[in-house]
Amino acid sequence: MKHNGTFTLLATALALSMFPACTQSSFQMQKFPNGQPNGQPMGMFSSKTSTEETAAISSVDTSLLLSDEDDIANVTFSESASLNLSTGTFTTSNQSITLSSETKSDGSIYYTIDTASVSSGVKVTLTGSLEKGSVEIVPKKESDIQIALADAHITSGNYAALTVSKVARTFLTLTGSNSLTDGRTYGTGYSKAEGTDYYSASYTGSTEDAELTQKWAEGDDTKATLYTKGSLLISGSGSLTVSENYKHGIYSKDYIRIFSGNVSVENGGRSAIRSANGFILTDGTVTINGTATNAQHPNDNSRGIIVEGSEDSGAGKGYIYISGGTVNIKSTGKAISAKWELEEDAETETTDDDPNPVVMICGGTVNVTTTDVVIDSDMNPQTISYYDADGVLVSETSSCSPEGIEGKTGVIISGGTVSVQSTDDALNASLDENGFVNIFGGNIYLYATSADAIDSNGDINISGGNIVALAPMGSEDGFDCDGGLSFTGGNAVGLSGSTHAYASEQNTSCTQTTFVIESSYAASAGNTIVIKDADGSTVFAFTIPQNINSYGIITISSSSLQKGKTYTVYKASQISGGENFYGLYTSMPSVTDASSTGSITTSSEKSVYTLGEFNSFGGGPGAPDRNAFENGSGRPFGGTPPSDRGPRR
What we know:
mainly beta, 3 domains, 14-stranded parallel barrel, 3 helices, about 5% helix, about 45% strand, elongated
């Protein structure tokens, strides 16, 4: 939808019929050897579905993209064809299925398998190796096509390696080891003829509707190594490795769903995996390595899994849904993003066609690392000129935002294990005022080296899970929100470089006891902040990572912290035993050397308590005005000080 200077959020309340993996989360956690985190969960945690969780999950209508009909076991392919890429041998069960080949000007062999005259489902098997060439499959529109890769290897020339050129449900099955390698390079304008789409500076012919490129070559600018116009559904016991240095590795003009198999993308271009309407992982393994930096490809560095969102075909879609399997991403740019943005991407006046750019993780394992340098176009806008993937000169504002997981509208996590180490925000929801991050369960580790661990332009709501959110740099925050920060359950710790207390003593939306503690009352790198009750029993412990030498505050929320109790805070240098998730103990350790720094007495009247001096930015009912503190008129909140309080680290 297009808005004339105003922002609205289309609130959807849709049936919760497709979420067996999201409605309950229960998972076994493993003990870390020697108390060190290895990225795997430990102990036992279970989350019972709440009304809030049900409402949040049902705001994403997965029935639009998740269907049993997409399971290949439920589809019949009555016709078949087979191409041996090494020999060119072609066989078919139906003479209406044809093969043609053409040698292109770059010397590559271009195979076209035409099944358009066959109404029933067709299975096309590819075997062998094609050293320099491409395969295009032309199915009947709106039909089912299976592409069975069985130890198949294609290295293309100036064309995509494998293309499905009509809208059809594409079932890609993997047997053995398979690979697709794109021969095209970033910064080149590929077209059928010079003057058509692109032309070089030396070209003297007609250039109507064509763009000037720094380098032109005869070929095709299909936007991915593996490209489908319809949905792409991947399964099998084998593997697929896609390598590209042009635009995208895998692209669907509809949605991508992975049921099983191992999919790897070596991405020296733009996005490793990209689609218009959605990405769903229910099982299997996805591995992405993105190598092109912003210095190499300005404003266009290598990203991971990206869903664009589309008003043309994606009303209510545009989301990323992970309920199982494993995702391992190392990228220079954004690792996971549902990117449709109201302000920039809306083109129509109606709200009925809006996508729903949410990232939802209900199970599985997600490991993300981003590495590029953050360039904030809002803080320091600079116009730059550069050549894009097609070699066309572009001038625009410089920007680089290597966020870990981004849902423009929101991020929902209710299960699984998530580990993010990013230079920009680790979790981000950027919709003005109405963005949200809702965590109901799971084991979540977030470390942002140059930004916030969790950043929501709306609310952050945590009601379950084990959460470690680290943002030790400068003015950055473990939990950063423009709306309210609410803890109603879970076991959470947030470490901030700033002294912004987003959980304030006036915040009435928190129902679980939460402590906000200035760093001088807590612990230093490699040591442990320990909280004990009046009986001397340890109820909370978190070990500060060795590489964090300074920080501002630590925010702690735990169901072990009760109302009507007195707790003492300790700095501990010697502990043993226990079980932890990235330093957050779920089974308490033995403490043998600790010194007290202060105490907090809780009551039934409120849930948030502070120890130290800092500004409160807490949102939610009853909270003070954030702008007042940013303008310097706020007051600090104090706990009981220690007798020998040391300097702030």
